[in-house]
Amino acid sequence: MNGSNRLGKESLPISQQAEHSQHHDTEHEHTDHTHGTGEPAHPHVHSEESLRRIANRLSRIEGHVRGIKTMVQQNSPCPDVLLQIAAVRGALDKVARIVLDEHLTECIARAAHEGNIDVEIKELKAALDRFLP
């Protein structure tokens, strides 16, 4: 995918990005891990199907959050709101597990094969430090 196609897709709203992804059966590559240097540290290549599944999950979570907002606006009971917030947390955790699993099986494995595993491990540790409580 060339840079202009990526830019065009990224400028779409999330729901349209997911729809846009459904029309491509190719691999997707993004290289936005620049570490402030402007040079990509490594490519991340993920299948369009994988990206579509993750985007669809996030769209459902987005709708769930809007539902919680409506509950609050309608003065729903606090325990009901908290229960829905817990459901969203669980759904986000599931998406994070999927992303982490794919990163380990695809990106880390590729880095090991290409001989730049140290950079990839360092990035993953930094991301996990920010992600985990």
UniProtKB/TrEMBL annotation:
Coiled coil: none annotated. Gene3D superfamilies: Metal-sensitive repressor, helix protomer. InterPro entries: Metal_Tscrpt_repr (IPR003735), Metal_Tscrpt_repr_sf (IPR038390). One of its GO terms (biological process) is negative regulation of DNA-templated transcription. Residues 20-52 have a biased composition (Basic and acidic residues). It comes from the Bacteria. GO terms for molecular function: DNA binding; metal ion binding. Residues 1-52 are annotated as: Disordered. Transmembrane segments: none annotated. It holds the Pfam family Trns_repr_metal. This is Copper-sensing transcriptional repressor CsoR. It comes from Nostoc punctiforme (strain ATCC 29133 / PCC 73102).
